[in-house]
Amino acid sequence: MTSVSQTGGSAVRARLAQLTRLTFGYSLASLAGPIFTILLTPLYLRVLTPGDYAVLGTVTTLGILMLTLGTLGLNAAVAVFFYDGDEAHSRQVVTTAASVGVLWSLLVALVVALTARPLAAFSLGSVSQAILLYLAAFNLPFAVLYAIIQASLRLQMAVKRANILSLAYLGLTVSLNVLFVLVLRWGVLGIQLTTVIVTLGLMAAGLAMTWGEWHWPKAALVRPLVRAGLPFLPNSLSFWALAYVDRLLLPAFAVPLGERGLYETANKLASMLTLLTVPFQNAWGPLALSIREEPSAPRTYSKVLTYFTIVSLGLVLAMGLFAHEIMVLLAFLIGKPDYIPSAIYVAPLSYIAVANGIGVAVGVGAYIAKRTSVFGWTTMIGAALNLLLNLLLIPRFGALGAAWATALGYAVVPVALYVAAQRVYSVPFEVWKVLLALGVQAALMLSGTLFEIGNLWLSVAVKLALLGLYAVALLALHVVEPSEWRAIMQMLGRPRAMLATMVRR
Asked: What is the model's pTM?
């Protein structure tokens, strides 16, 4: 295929450059979470054993499931009625949603508390770990109230107050985890205590910020809010199942605690790629909708998918090839070689970030056509496949089976979304280029991960050569034309402009 033509080419390049700047500049607060996770992970590894990491992953999974069920979709339902009346009506909507959410979450918390001991024995390996579930149950109503407060601030477009709460959340979380986990050595219990204390503090701060904005709840709003919130629940549960069901199936099939801990560690390492996908998702959605009337919009949509795929697959290739070396370095720094075997799970888990980003790119047509329901059922397809593959692969391959099941479950979502979105709004995506880039990257990944070389430095040299071969192969196969490659390098080579965007926003 020829390079971007003169007609419309400059407009496409301008939009791609704008997207690059926005990707680096959007949602600085949302990036802080992954950054802190990455910085704290080596410190946690010094204190926590692989078994501790397995317990932490399971408790986190159950906590997110509890929050999903506890909110009842009310934090999303608030938006449906928020703008239907005057200011007093908006306050009634928020107060009613908060009241219903807290009461319902108290019931969910009671059920969890009553079943905490057998649930801990099954999923956490010991009845003594039930304290972690008791803390999660205690925390639930406060977390639900905080979620609704955040939804209210977003609907009011109170960006400053919302960001203050988000950054305070991150700062408190890091500080208390350092105290409880690294200083006092309370392990997973310290992390869970941090969650409870931070939620209580932020909920109190949110109430103080919005104290004059609360109103008496309105009984007539209860049923409409619940009706509006319930449809969000299946979608939320599908997202949860896609991301976390493997953590519950691993203990169900008696996968050893240590192996589960290594799997959780690999998930942490693979999550580094959210530094790419999170800002891309925040940047591309609004920008794609804002340019939908421009003549060059279809070509821009197409190039965004191609370029994102190329760049993200390159990063995944680097992550997968050097996972072993990264874990060896971490093990050397923290003095715990037990974590080195987790490298085997990193490569498949790294593809999750690519799948999420591609889903954002190919789903633009559904947003333009206002057919957002497709996002729900395509996620359900991915969750169902993920569950089926986990059931088939975990008994035979253990945590490695879970890694591939999760990666394939995520991979089917953008495929289904592409088919559905193209039916409602056709975009001339360069599908053959995307598939060719994926084929080249997969071949190089297999070459680098299946054929390990005993000598460390020779292994590093070979893997660096494979990374270089990725770029050469894309040029040789005309997946990227030389002019396009120069454009990509120019966009990625403007750190000053990107930094200025981040500071302004």
From this structure: 0.79
